[in-house]
């Protein structure tokens, strides 16, 4: 079985729960490999703590994304600048967004999103960086977002047909939209380039007070041969340092040989 690495998302902890230094110290002490979605000015601090940067944003705006041709020139410039940063800082994945429907039908939205990503795929391939389109729920957190189901996202990835264009499968978001998490991962793992976790409901800790039971989910991911990062993106309910440690330990023990 390949080794899965663990990362944790900056925005869930800093500045609301911890200072940057407190957060990075707790993350390093818990044994994480990387941090995600940190502001660029903190990247040197992350490296100084012996941590990698697993993801950052590829372009601006969740709502105004790849599914509108009029957005392409702006997004292409932002993605190419982000690819340069990713190469320089050894960031393996950049997160992309479909954008909201705003009346756009799903078939056309998928075609336009794939068209945009086909144009960007050669740049990503040359850089050795994966563009991951994030699956988000449109029911609660991101109303009207178009890439809100795994079949829609997988259709886009299949249409692009590049090893450097994949999905970011967020367990929390897809539990809200679809459920059936393990079977969906098993059926679609070839289209997935990154994972995020959080408890549901509430987007809190991966504990016994929410409806997802994560150990078999982690094992299902590992069984696909995935060897990237599993990124924890939850908001801690109590002591943040303990929550950081507990999430890492749960994942580690779940997939330990």
Question: Given the C-alpha coordinates, what overall shape results?
Answer: globular
Alpha-carbon distance between the two ends = 8 Å
Order of helices and strands: EHEHEHEHEHEHHEHEH
Helix-residue proportion: 40-55%
User: Mind describing the biggest β-sheet?
Assistant: 8 strands, parallel, barrel
Uncertain residue segments: none
Structural class: alpha/beta
Q: Please identify the top-level CATH class of the domain at 58-197.
A: Alpha Beta
Describe this structure in words.
The structure is a single chain. This protein has 257 residues and is α/β, with parallel strands linked by helices. It has a domain at 58-197: Alpha-Beta Barrel (TIM Barrel), CATH 3.20.20. The chain has 9 helices and 8 strands. It has helices spanning 20-30, 43-48, 72-89, 106-127, 150-160, 171-177, 181-188, 214-223, 240-255, and strands at 5-9, 34-36, 52-57, 93-96, 130-134, 165-170, 192-197, 229-232. The protein has an 8-stranded parallel β-barrel with strand order 1-2-3-4-5-6-7-8, surrounded by 6 helices. Strand 3 (52-57), helix 3 (72-89) and strand 4 form a beta-alpha-beta unit. The longest helix has 22 residues, at 106-127. The protein is globular, with a radius of gyration of 17 Å. The mean pLDDT is 97.
Short characterization:
α4 crosses α5. β3, α3 and β4 form a beta-alpha-beta unit.
List the helices and strands and how they pair.
Elements: E1 5-9, H1 20-30, E2 34-36, H2 43-48, E3 52-57, H3 72-89, E4 93-96, H4 106-127, E5 130-134, H5 150-160, E6 165-170, H6 171-177, H7 181-188, E7 192-197, H8 214-223, E8 229-232, H9 240-255
Parallel strand pairs: 1-2, 1-8, 2-3, 3-4, 4-5, 5-6, 6-7, 7-8
